[in-house]
Amino acid sequence: MHRRLLWTVPPVAVLTLLFLYPLALVVQQSVQPDTGGTSLQPYADVFASEAFRHALWTTVWLALASTVGCLVLGFALSLVIAFVPFPGAKAVARFIDVYLSFPSFLITLALLFIYGTTGIIGSFQFLTTPWGVLLAEITYFTPFVIRPLLAAFAQLDTAQLEAAGSLGARPLRIVRRVILPEAVPALAAGGSLVLVLCLNEFGIVLFTGAKGVTTLPMLVYSKAILESDYPGACVVAVVNVSISVGLYGLYRVVSLRAGA
After folding, report:
1. Residues 6 or more apart from 48 whose CB is under 8 A from it?
2. Which among 38, 59, 67, 167 could disulfide-bond with 195, CB atoms 3.0 to 4.6 Å apart, if both were Cys?
3. pTM, 2 dp
4. Does some domain include residue 36?
5. CATH number of domain containing 150
6. Exposed e or buried b for every residue in 34-57, given b needs 16+ CB within 10 A?
7. Which domain holds residue 149?
């Protein structure tokens, strides 16, 4: 028992040093206004600002819309890769593994060559709008849904599909009655991951140059770097972290009750 406790000391120490201690400093700074002392006035000022409410709403709707788009597109692409025989299917599946290692700004930079002001169809200036940010996030985060779906489909008993097909079931009915129930846990896992990542995404919004799109991470950046309002930036950061942790806790509760 004592040996097990000793083995937990190094990872806990590293976690405390690299994550918990900096997070504690952010929380501490959020209650220390520039005038000195300890006060909740920075929270009151931030919550009362129109910029914060707009950034919160933009962050939430972009994250939700991106998650829905990734789930729909990821499920459709996973069905094609896993069940529709075509040359290079295995290569595509391997490429998705490599794609997951790409930084988000790299994908956004590639989209700039198409939708940017000097891109192929740049006259539309599509990428600098909220819909352009939404497209970039769906493009980047969809593989985070595809990967767990492909793993789930690999464990699916093909005999069920053959039996359903022999009984005259149409492809859509097979997908709805046989494949989709098996894919629900993978969809939940991938969708939860995408939702949390979209809530905290910074690089895509920054590289698209969408001036009218301000999310919570962008608000942290602007307050800290452009306005030198460090207490305000820490308040927004605390709110952003609280939302992410709250969503993760909700996911854990729901998954445990569902027996996942």
Report:
1. none
2. 67
3. 0.84
4. no
5. 1.10.3720.10
6. eeeeeeeebbeebeeeeebeebbe
7. 57-213
